[in-house]
Amino acid sequence: MRRRALVTGGAGFIGSHLVERLLNEGHEVTVIDNFSTGGPRNLTHLADYETLSVIRADITDTEMIRSHFEGVEWVFHLAAIAEIVPSIQDPMSYVRVNVEGTANVIDAARRAGVDRLIYAASSSCYGVPDQFPTPETAEIRPEYPYALTKNLGEQLVMHWEKIYQIPSVSLRLFNVYGPRSRTSGTYGAVFGVFLAQKLAGKNFTVVGDGTQTRDFTFVTDVVDAFVRAAKSDRSGEVFNVGTGNPRSVNELVALLRGEKVHIPKRPGEPDCTSAANERIRDAFGWQPRVSFEQGVQVLLENIDYWREAPVWDEASIAEATQDWFACLGPPKA
């Protein structure tokens, strides 16, 4: 059955893959994006779809976005500003977009009477957890403003679900990677950093000794979780989206094939991220399908996407992360 879907942040990394999946399934899709981190090039391969509408708008502008929710059945709220360092430097921008912007989106959904709302939450809400794999019941203890504001957004979604009966689900995403991942920003995500370094023939800047592990989850598997959540009748629940099979940064370096240098460990980052995913498996029949080795190979096959990305080195990373260490603590050995 064709649905009318709206994707905030639909020109971004995960959002553009979600839009592609929805269009391929025959749904009608409206994208709302201000192109601050994503961009039109992430959607150019979808230009021939007559069922796609792209609206350049900011979710903090209530009047600009509200009319686009009329007649929409599914809302996928992915629009946000990410990154740790800028959230420490300018926390109020994160409050405006990730908290107030989320309130605008869910209230527009309420007024329009949408059928389902799926929120892109972040596993960073767990901070440095005590339990691995980390279940949804783990204590929420964000270490920096980005993580805090994403969790506040989740709380808004769950509160609106309870009070206004908007069927809603929150997905806490773990270490998403894949084609079209972010290339800009103040010391970005590890894949964007490493792939730009590889193209430039530079050393990979490995934090600490590289034995820390991350629950790297391929973007198409994450998109599958969003679609399954939208098609379900579950509501008022939170689900982890991760493989439950963390891999080390050193393993990533080996797959990317290059030399490495080590930079100081950073405060507020766990040595491991690992999702307890039994809840989403049971609820939606979801399971990760793309192995880490397969996912890295796909990135290498699409490496030209990162050709214009900033190339970081030890000195530029140290400069970019000064505020991180100043606010959260000294470098660790």
Quickly count the domains: 2
H/E series, N to C?
A: EHEEHEHHEHEEHEEEHEEHEHHHH
Assembly state of the chains shown: single chain
CATH homologous superfamily descriptor of the largest domain = NAD(P)-binding Rossmann-like Domain
Count helical runs. Answer: 12
Low-confidence stretches: none
Report Rg. Answer: 19 Å
Strand content: 15-25%
Q: What coarse outline follows from CA principal-axis ratios?
A: globular
Alpha-beta classification: alpha/beta
The CATH architecture of the largest domain would be 3-Layer(aba) Sandwich
Distance between the termini: 56 Å
Text of the CATH class of the largest domain:
Alpha Beta
Strand tally:
13
- Percent helix, as a range, is 25-40%
Main sheet makeup? 7 strands, parallel
CATH topology of the largest domain: Rossmann fold
Q: Spatial order of the strands in the main sheet?
A: 3-2-1-4-5-6-11
Average pLDDT figure: 95
List keywords for this structure.
Rossmann fold, 38% helix, UDP-galactose 4-epimerase, domain 1, two-stranded parallel sheet, alpha/beta, 333 residues, 2 domains
Quick overview:
With 333 residues, the chain is an alpha/beta fold. Helix content is 38%, strand content 16%. The chain folds into 2 domains: 197 residues, Rossmann fold (3-Layer(aba) Sandwich), CATH 3.40.50.720; 103 residues, UDP-galactose 4-epimerase, domain 1, CATH 3.90.25.
